[in-house]
Amino acid sequence: MTVLVTGDAGNIGSHMVHALLDAGEQIVVLDNLTTGFDWAVPSSAKLAIGAGDQSCVAALIAQHRVDTVLHFAAS
């Protein structure tokens, strides 16, 4: 399974990503880094920096064969 996590560079999303990685999941992170930090994303997760617009999300889902999305991005 590949999981797309939006908002991982923040507090709640980063904890979820660590738990998913510990469980052996493949992780793709989408964050615009407005309030988060790239160093908060584990090196074993793929980081895509950008907005969560429909075309960006669709491209990530197709490219990484994402089958689950967890949404933690918010303003």
3D structure, described in words:
By secondary structure, the protein is α/β, with parallel strands linked by helices. The chain has a single domain (about 1-70), classed as Rossmann fold (3-Layer(aba) Sandwich), CATH 3.40.50.720. The protein has 2 helices and 4 strands; from the N terminus they run βαββαβ. It has helices spanning about 10-20, 55-65; strands at about 1-5, 25-30, 45-50, 70. Strands 3-2-1-4 form a 4-stranded parallel sheet, sandwiched between helices. Helix 1 (about 10-20) links the parallel strand 1 and strand 2 (about 25-30). The radius of gyration is 11 Å and the shape is globular. The chain starts with a strand and ends with a strand.
From the spread of the alpha carbons, the general shape counts as: globular
Q: What name goes with the CATH superfamily?
A: NAD(P)-binding Rossmann-like Domain
> Order of strands in the sheet with the most strands?
3-2-1-4
Return the average pLDDT rounded to an integer. Answer: 90
Q: What is the CATH architecture annotation?
A: 3-Layer(aba) Sandwich
Provide the CATH topology.
Answer: Rossmann fold
Count the DSSP helices: 2
Terminus-to-terminus distance: 28 Å
Counting helices, strands and paired strands, the structural category is alpha/beta
Rg from Cα: 11 Å
Instruction: Please report the total strand number as a whole number.
Output: 4
Which runs of at least 5 residues are low in confidence (pLDDT < 50)?
A: none
Largest sheet descriptor: 4 strands, parallel
Helix content: 25-40%
- Give the total of domains: 1
| Element order: H for helix, E for strand | EHEEHE
